[in-house]
Amino acid sequence: MLSLVPFVNFVAWGYLYRVFVDGLNRSPSLTPPSWEAWRTYWSVGLRLFVITLGYLILIVFAGVAVLGISGGDIEGPQQILMVGLLSMAAFNVISPVIYARYAEERRIWAAFEPDVLFRDLRQVVRVEYVQLCLLYLGLWMMTFLILVGIPYVGPVFLSIFHFYLSLVFAFVFGHVVAGRREATDLAEGS
Fold this sequence. Notes:
Elements: H1 4-24, H2 38-69, H3 77-105, H4 114-124, H5 127-147, H6 153-189
Helix pairs in contact: 1-2, 1-3, 1-6, 2-3, 3-4, 5-6
């Protein structure tokens, strides 16, 4: 049973990515796609996992380097946990822009091109984007804290709720990223 978890996660990631791309393409409404293309979802989910893992490693190394340079001690479990949590939070803020880069190029390495990524981040990250990130994180954490403690059915409900929460926010993030890019392109073209 445990060996199916990565497979299911990759399929879910690919499915959510498909919804995100629909948002990037400015689809007028959230229409969940069919699950028939699960093989494609799995393949895309695996690629997104590789991108995510690469960024988390880079962010953790940067956090450890900053703590090491500043003279901070990173030996205790609290410091390691803090670096890990801050790394995940930082990645969650930039991940929609990274996934949009991958969507444009369809190459894993396109998501790691720093000059293009910084340009895209400057275009997209505004107050409404940060508010959207905080809203998603807040809802995710609140439901986690409420549902994780319910014996047996809590984790099941938590997984289902987080999937649907991610489904809605994937679509919204796609719209926000596409809208900010269009607004910037229009401002630069004028």
